[in-house]
Input
Amino acid sequence: MKLMIVEDDLLLAREIGRLCEKWGFEALCLKRFDAVDLACRQCRPDLVLMDINLPSYDGFYWCSKIRETSHVPVLFLSSRDQNADKVMAMVSGGDDYVEKPFDPELLLVKIRALLRRSYEYVQSDREAVAENLIYDRGQGQLVYRGEILIEMTKSENKVFSLLADHRGKVVTRDTLMQQLWNTDDYVTDASLTVLVSRLRAKIHEGTGGNVDCIRTKKGQGYYLP
Output
């Protein structure tokens, strides 16, 4: 999972980044602090580590801006230990608070607990379907390398969902068409071919040609290896 570190002490930010990578996370340390909310939208982290004392605007401000467009969990890191600051952290949309200097083990426990609370249910709808490719059933998306989104139409998601349910086995064309008919999407044999071809093209383009996960069994149907 990807963590975005918003800390203007770049030496400390790098140290936190090294710790996060040691624990198996991907860490991104911001070097500019004039558009933290935009950076969050662009890199789509799974968790934000947010300092309070930042140039121009403080962490409370940026957390509230992030909350306008995202539910990403925010863990505040600060040397400020006043109860009022902890209250402000929660009021601005933060999820937890760790005081500096912090014990690395405590930080790890806080990060893992926050990720578990935030994603335990959501992750049950996610599964790996190829190298670096995650299928999010609920959102109808494929996520490549944790950041590139491949949006599927309603019909494409139905087809991909059925293939994922029977991974390693061929799903016949008749079964796929029946699945679409059952949900009021009437398709012909020819339009199913077009639908699958379009979905393959999306995956090919979205992954830079690195993933080809929908295979054809000639004369029978399709499958995910």
